[in-house]
Amino acid sequence: MARRKIVAGNWKMNKTPSEAVALVEELKPLVASDDVDVVFCVPAIDIIPVAEAVKGTNIAVGAENMYFEEKGAYTGEISPAMLVDAGVKYVVLGHSERREYFAETNETVNKKVLKAFEHGITPIMCCGESLEQREQGVTMDFIRQQVKVGLQNVTAEQAKTMVIAYEPIWAIGTGKTATTEQAQEVCAGIRACIAEVYDDATAEAIRIQYGGSVNAATAPELFAQADIDGGLVGGAALKPDFGKIVNYK
Ligand code: PGA
After folding, report:
1. 131 C-alpha vs ligand 1 centroid, how far in Å?
2. Mean pLDDT score, 62-86
3. What is the pTM of this model?
4. Does residue 211's CB lie within 6 angstroms of at least one atom of ligand 1?
């Protein structure tokens, strides 16, 4: 069975609540699609107004992070139950910016992935190598580690429903998209890793996105690759271009 494509916008730390609603209104008609799952992953404070603004559309709301505890004395954090109550269906976990600036590790990402499943939120788990790692030829070793640790104690049934985003760090926000061949090669490698950890059926079901400077011009070729099931889009998700990326065909 063909995997359904999923295109998610990662708004990062952009848009105040009122700006967020205005952007949703602008993008709503442009991202309508029967073939592709569309997700807007937005800053925590924008989740409630965005969830309201997307009602009745094909857009699902995602968060950009989440804590792995249920509740309690964790000042500044947001719990999975809070996200669910606000209408969140997806959560980006382990983005390279969170790993770099906020001390996320494969272990904390794993705790968050497990917690998201417990609450019925679909994780979009990010992985990706630095330029140095690519140049040293350890890309796949590094990513396999991220994926395997990130998925510890995740069942095959759960893994089948999740999304993995392959985002080479050197391609994020740099305008340097990985070549189609580079992106396909690593996404195929991730799928092979899933097959080893679980089985072929799980590897066939899991959706793997490419992310890193995706735009309307590069999306069609990237998304046509056998192992690329859509994209995680940063900069271009804040522009009308996002509609073209969703409707890439
Ligand atoms: P970019 O960001 O599309 O701006 O490169 C992608 C991401 O970080 O998810």
Report:
1. 15
2. 98
3. 0.97
4. yes
Tell me the pLDDT band of 1, cut-offs 50, 70 and 90: low
The ligand 1 atom at the shortest distance from the C-alpha of residue 92 is 9
Tell me, in angstroms, the distance from the centre of ligand 1 to residue 199's CA: 30
* DSSP assignment of the chain: -PPPEEEEEE--S---HHHHHHHHHHHGGGG--SSEEEEEEE-GGGHHHHHHHTTTSSEEEEES---SSSSSS-TT---HHHHHHTTEEEEEES-HHHHHHS---HHHHHHHHHHHHHTTPEEEEEE---HHHHHTT-HHHHHHHHHHHHTTT--HHHHHH-EEEE--GGGTTSS-PPPHHHHHHHHHHHHHHHHHHS-HHHHHHSEEEEESS--TTTHHHHHTSTT--EEEESGGGGSTHHHHHHT--
Average pLDDT value over all residues in the chain: 97
